[in-house]
Amino acid sequence: MIKIITDSTAYITEEYLKEHDIKVIPLRVLFENEEFEEGLPGTFGPFFEKFEKSKSFPKTSQPSLLEFIDAYNKVIDDGNEAIVFTISSVLSGTNSVANLAKDQCKDPSKITVIDSKNACQTTWGFIMETVDMIKQGKTREEIVSQLEKLQEKSAICFVPDTLEYLKRGGRIGKISATLGSLFQIKPILMFKKGNLGCEKRTLGISKAISELIAMIPQNIKRLFLVHISNSKFFEVLKEKIKGKFNVPTFEGEVGPVVASHIGPAIGVAWTC
What we know:
The structure is a single chain. Helix 3 packs across helix 4 (94-104), helix 5 packs antiparallel against helix 6 (140-153) and helix 9 packs across helix 10. This protein folds into two domains: 2-151, 3-Layer(aba) Sandwich (Rossmann fold), CATH 3.40.50; 155-271, 2-Layer Sandwich (Hypothetical Protein Tm841, Chain: A,domain 3), CATH 3.30.1180.10. The strands form three sheets. A six-stranded mixed β-sheet has the order 10-9-8-13-11-12, with helices on both faces. It has a four-stranded parallel β-sheet with strand order 2-1-6-7, sandwiched between helices. Helix content is 39%, strand content 27%. The protein has helices spanning 14-19, 45-51, 65-77, 94-104, 121-135, 140-153, 164-168, 174-182, 205-214, 234-241, 256-262, and strands spanning 2-7, 23-25, 28-31, 34-37, 59-61, 81-86, 111-115, 155-160, 185-192, 195-203, 222-228, 249-254, 265-271. The protein is globular and about 55 Å long. It is an alpha/beta fold. It contains eleven helices and 13 strands.
C-alpha cells in the first residue's frame, strides 16, 4: 500500500490526516526564545496572539534527519511504500533532509520524495489528488507523473494585511514599506513553480481582493480560501468569491512557518 508523508506546511486538518492515515513531520519555529513544533491548523492561536504584538521576528528550521528516517522505516517495516511531500526546496532545506533520509532508510526504493515546488494548501491539493489516485490503484510512478502536470499550473497567492512583516524579513526595503503603507499599496504574492514573488501591486484591499480572484484560472479542480492569523479581510474574500467557481472549495489556516515571511494575510490556493 502507498502511504503519504508530508511536512507541516501543507496545513492539513487533523480530521483529514486521520481519515487518510497521513503522517506529518513538523518544521520548527524559534520565537521569543522558545522553540516549538509548528503543529496543525486549529492550534496556531497562541502563537499569533504573541506574533502580532511582538517586535521579535520568528526563525524557522527544517525537521531532523532522524524524524524522516523513522517515518520511512515504519512504512517499510509495515510492508508499504511512501510518497513524501515537502515545502518548496527554494523556501526550505526540508526537501534536502527528506532526500538524505531516503538514502539512509532501510529500503530507499520504497520511498519517493516530491518537492512540491509550492507551499501551504496547494500541497494539500496535491495530496488530495494523490489520495484519489491511490484509491484508483495507480502506481507511485503514475502518481508522480500526474503530480508533475499539476505543479505546472497550481499555485497559492496572498494579500498581506500589512507590509511590515515583508520588511522585517528583508523581502522589501524600509522605504518601499513606508510608501506602500502610506498609499495603501497591496502586493499580491504568489508561490508558483518553487518561488515566492510579487505578481501585482494594487491600491487598497478591495481592489486587491478583486485582482486576487481574477488571477484564479477557470479550469481548476480544487480551490482553497486561506488566511494567516485570522485576517480581518477573510470574510470579505469569502463573500466576493461566492458562486464564482463550481469546484470543491475548502477553507484553510496557514501556520507560523509561512506566516513568519508574510504576516497576517488572506489568500487563495488552487490545483488544476
